[in-house]
C-alpha cells in the first residue's frame, strides 16, 4: 500500500487529546501563537480529516487554529449529544479544558448551529463568531431542502457524487472546484478516522429536529451581541442562503457575505476569498496580539 504524500502542513498536524468533562476529545492545532485562537466546529457526520487542508493552511498563516472531533465523533470518546445545546456544551468544555480563554469560533453547517448556541450559553468565552453555510434555525418561511438532499445526506456512506451534489453547484466551475477539494483530502500518513456510527447519526438527526423547534436560535438572536459574520454560497442546497440573510437582519452586530455561484462548501470552493474576508472580519478591531 502506498503511503500518501502530505501536500499541506495540516496533513502533518499531530493529533492530541484532552480530558474535557466526561469525554476524551481529539484535536489538532496549527499556526502562530497569537491570541485569540480560532476554534472550528464541524458539519453533520464530519470528522477532523474532512476539513480541507488548503483551508486550514490558509487560516493558520496568521492565527492559531484548533479543530477537533466532538464527543462520540471520530477519534473522541463519549456519545453524540442529541441536541445542539448539548453539542455546544462539549465545545465549551473543550475550550475550557485547554484554558484557551476568550476565542473566536467558526462553525460550518451543523457546526454553525453549535457555535451560535455556545456563544449564547457562554458569551464571555467568545470574542467573534463566524457562521458558515448555516443558519439560526427557526427562520420563518425559510426554503426547505429538497427530497434529493435528504436522500443524499442520509445515505449510510456518501460517495464522491453525493459530496459534489451536496456541497458544490452543478456547474462546470462548481464540479471542478468540488473535485479539487476531494482530491486534497485523505493525504495524512495515518489511517483515516472512524466515521460517526449509526447511534451518533441518529442523535444528530434528533438534534436537527429540536433545532427547528425548541432549540432554535432565531428567536434568541437579539441576545447574540458579539460581532458575527454570516457567510454562505448563493447556491447552497443544504441550508438555503435565506437563513443567513434572515440571521444577519436579526442579530444586533452581524455582517453578511454571500459568494456567487457557490454552494454549501463555498469555504473550500473559494478558499482565498473566504479566508481574506474572514481575516478582515476577525482582525477588524486590531485586537490580535503578536
Tally of separate domains: 1
What is the highest CATH level, the class?
Alpha Beta
Name the CATH superfamily assignment. Alpha/Beta hydrolase fold, catalytic domain
Report helical residue fraction: 25-40%
Order of H and E elements = EEEHEHEHEHHHHEHEHH
- Percentage of residues in strands: 15-25%
Strand order of the largest sheet: 1-2-4-3-5-6-7-8
- Give the CATH topology: Rossmann fold
The general outline is: globular
Task: Specify Rg, calculated over alpha carbons.
Answer: 17 Å
Biggest β-sheet: count, sense, barrel? 8 strands, mixed
Alpha carbon gap, first and last residue = 43 Å
Q: Helix count, per DSSP?
A: 10
Which quaternary structure do these chains form?
single chain
Number of beta-strand segments: 8
The secondary-structure class comes to: alpha/beta
Instruction: Show unreliable segments.
Output: 286-290
Overall average residue pLDDT: 95
CATH architecture: 3-Layer(aba) Sandwich
Summarize the structure.
Helices cover 35% and strands 16% of the residues. The chain contains 10 helices and 8 strands. It has an 8-stranded mixed sheet, with helices on both faces.
Key descriptive features of the protein:
about 15% strand, 8-stranded mixed beta sheet, about 35% helix, Rossmann fold, alpha/beta, about 290 residues
Describe the protein:
By secondary structure, the protein is an alpha/beta fold. The protein has one domain (9-282): Alpha/Beta hydrolase fold, catalytic domain (Rossmann fold), CATH 3.40.50.1820. Helix content is 35%, strand content 16%. Strands 1-2-4-3-5-6-7-8 form an 8-stranded mixed β-sheet, with helices on both faces. Helix 2 (84-97) packs across helix 3. It is globular, with a radius of gyration of 17 Å.
Amino acid at each position: 500500500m502506498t503511503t500518501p504524500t502530505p501536500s499541506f502542513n495540516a496533513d502533518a498536524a499531530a493529533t492530541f487529546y484532552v480530558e474535557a468533562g466526561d469525554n476524551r476529545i481529539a484535536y489538532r492545532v496549527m499556526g502562530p501563537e497569537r491570541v485569540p485562537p480560532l476554534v472550528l466546529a464541524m458539519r453533520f457526520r464530519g470528522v477532523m480529516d474532512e476539513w480541507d487542508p488548503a483551508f486550514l493552511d490558509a487560516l493558520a498563516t496568521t492565527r492559531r487554529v484548533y479543530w477537533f472531533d466532538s464527543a462520540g465523533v471520530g477519534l473522541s470518546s463519549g456519545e453524540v449529544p442529541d441536541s445542539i445545546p448539548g453539542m455546544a456544551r462539549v465545545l465549551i468544555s473543550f475550550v475550557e479544558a485547554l484554558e484557551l480563554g476568550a476565542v473566536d469560533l467558526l462553525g460550518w453547517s451543523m457546526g454553525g448551529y453549535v457555535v451560535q448556541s455556545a456563544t449564547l450559553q457562554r458569551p464571555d468565552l467568545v470574542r467573534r463568531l463566524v457562521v458558515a453555510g448555516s443558519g439560526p434555525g427557526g427562520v420563518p418561511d425559510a426554503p426547505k431542502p429538497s427530497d434529493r438532499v435528504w436522500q443524499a445526506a442520509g445515505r449510510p456512506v456518501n460517495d464522491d457524487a453525493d459530496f459534489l451534489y451536496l456541497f458544490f453547484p452543478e456547474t462546470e466551475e462548481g464540479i471542478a472546484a468540488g473535485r479539487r477539494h476531494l482530491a486534497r483530502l485523505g493525504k495524512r500518513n495515518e489511517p483515516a478516522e472512524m466515521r460517526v456510527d449509526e447511534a451518533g447519526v441518529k442523535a444528530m438527526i434528533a438534534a436537527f429536529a429540536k433545532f427547528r423547534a425548541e432549540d432554535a436560535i432565531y428567536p434568541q438572536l437579539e441576545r447574540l451581541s458579539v460581532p458575527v459574520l454570516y457567510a454562505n454560497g448563493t447556491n447552497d442546497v443544504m441550508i438555503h442562503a435565506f437563513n443567513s440573510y434572515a440571521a444577519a437582519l436579526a442579530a444586533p452586530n452581524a455582517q453578511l457575505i454571500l459568494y456567487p455561484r457557490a454552494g454549501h462548501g463555498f469555504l473550500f470552493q473559494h478558499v482565498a476569498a473566504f479566508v481574506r474576508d474572514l481575516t478582515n472580519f476577525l482582525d477588524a478591531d486590531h485586537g490580535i496580539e503578536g
